Amino acid sequence: MGRGKRNLIDVLAGLPWSVGLVVGALGYLALAHGVPMWFARQGGPFAQAFAGASNPFGLLAWLFLALCAIGALISFFRARHSRQLLDTRTGLESIAALGWRDFERLVGEAFRRRGYSVEETGLGGADGGIDLILRRDGRRILVQCKQWRRERVPVNVVREMYGLMAHHRADEVRIAALGGFTPDAERFAEGKRIELIDGSTLLAMIEEARAVSTGAIEARNRVEPKLVATEEKLIDVPSCPRCGETMVHRTNRRNGNGFWGCSTFPTCKGVLN
Q1: Cα–Cα dist 256/218, whole Å
Q2: 3-state secondary structure of 155
Q3: Is residue 175 within 8 Å of 195, Cβ to Cβ?
Q4: Distance CA 94, CA 102 (A)
Q5: Along the chain (273 residues), what's the average pLDDT of each consecutive run of 10 residues?
Q6: What one-character DSSP code corresponds to residue 89?
Q7: What distance in Å separates the CA atoms of residue 260 and residue 270, rounded to the nearest whole number?
Q8: Nearest to residue 150, comparing CAs of 199, 85, 197?
Q9: How many angstroms separate the CA atoms of 103 and 114, rounded?
Q10: Which of 83, 120, 200, 273 is the most exposed place for a label (fewest CB within 10 A)?
C-alpha cells in the first residue's frame, strides 16, 4: 500500500525548508492584504464587508502561515537527520540496519550532495513506487528505493518503473536496492534510461558524497590563508637589492623593529629598513 493522500504540511515537509517559509509568507500576504484589497475594489456587499478594519480572512491567513511554518520546521529537522544518516554510515551492515523510510532519506541525501535537487514525493512506501524526484540541469529523474536485505529486485519492478518514466515524462529512472537485482532485471535495464544501484554502488556513492563534503571544508580552510596573503600583496612589496627576488616583512627579535628581508634567506641576506 502507498502512503495515501498528503496534506499541505506533508508537501512542504518534502521540500527545502526555505520553500515552506516563502510559501507561508506569500500566502499570508495574499490572504491578509491581497484578497481584501481585491474585494474592496469590486464594489457591492463584498466591498462593504471589507471596508471596515476587520478582515474575514485574517484568521485564515495566520492559520496558513502557521501550517507552512510547521512544514518548514519538519523539513529542517528531516534535512539535518538525513545529513546525520549519511555521515554515520560505515558499511553495508549499517545501511541494512535502517528502516525503509530512513533508507529513502539516505539515498536522497547522497544524491543531494552530488548536486541534485531532491523531492520526497510520498508516492511510494514500504512496498515501492516513486520515492524521490531528482532535478538537475533541466532533467527530471524518478527514483525508487528498495531496502530488501535478502532479496534481489525482480524484472517486473524494473518494468513498472520504466512505465512510470514514460507516464510521467521523466528523463531517467534510478532504482536503489540494497540486495541487488536479478539477472533478468539487469538485462531489461541494458540500453535503457535506467540506472540500477546495488548496495556496493550505493555505499560508494555515500563515501564519495562524504569525501566531497570533507574536501569542501578543507578547501575552504586552505583558501582563507590565501585570502590573507592576497590582502598582504596589496602592500608595495619591494624587491631584494641584491638578487631581485621578492622580499618578506620580518621583525627584529632584539628591538622589535620591522624590516624587509629577502625571501631566499639564508641564500641571500639582502635587507631593507
Answers
A1: 35
A2: helix
A3: yes
A4: 12
A5: 61 79 89 76 62 69 90 84 82 87 90 87 61 93 90 94 92 94 95 93 87 55 44 57 75 68 72 77
A6: -
A7: 8
A8: 199
A9: 17
A10: 273
Question: What's this model's pTM, rounded to 2 decimal places?
Answer: 0.58
CA atoms of 173 and 142, how far apart (whole Å):
5
- Can you tell me the distance from the alpha carbon of 164 to that of 173, in angstroms, rounded to the nearest whole number? 9
- CA dihedral 113→115→120→121, nearest 10 degrees, is -160
- pLDDT, one tens digit per residue, over 89-134 is 888 888 888 888 889 989 999 998 888 988 877 555 544 589 999 9
Q: At 150, which amino acid appears? A: R
Q: CB of 3 within 8 A of CB of 122?
A: yes
Are 188 and 165 contacting, i.e. CB atoms less than 8 angstroms apart? no
Determine the distance from the C-alpha atom of residue 93 to the mean position of all C-alpha atoms in its chain, rounded to a whole number: 25
